[in-house]
Write a structure and sequence with these properties.
Elements: H1 6-47, E1 52-56, E2 59-63, H2 65-109
Antiparallel strand pairs: 1-2
Length: 110
């Protein structure tokens, strides 16, 4: 069996770190996507009702429908921006990992 050089070992370690980072990003992205779905659901429900309520701390208080709608739309916009940012980070890590994986494969084949 051929020995793996120190450089290749370092690249493998780096690849493992990229994988861990990618898993973290994917988990965060999934959370934000779930929040976005919840916000969409809340906005739909808000359209169907005349009275609106908002949770403040441990209590529910009456709220103006327009204010609540504006609040939810703002949260949705922020959530979508976070998802886009995470997707960019995901793409960057995938590209870096792919390059390192190709280098490792070439070094192992030698």
């Amino acid at each position: 069996m051929a020995e793996i050089s120190k450089e290749t070992e370092q690249k493998i370690s780096q690849l493992q770190l990229y994988e861990q980072g990618l898993q973290s990003i994917l988990a965060q992205k999934q959370q934000f996507q779930s929040q976005s779905v919840e916000i969409d659901s809340a906005l739909k429900e808000l359209e169907l009702t005349d009275q609106a309520y908002k949770i403040v701390g441990n209590i529910i208080v009456a709220s103006k429908k327009e204010v609540l709608k504006k609040d939810l739309e703002s949260k949705k916009e922020t959530t979508n921006l976070r998802v886009k940012t995470l997707e960019k980070q995901e793409d960057q890590i995938r590209d870096k990992a792919k390059k390192i994986q190709e280098e490792v494969s070439k070094n192992i084949e030698k």
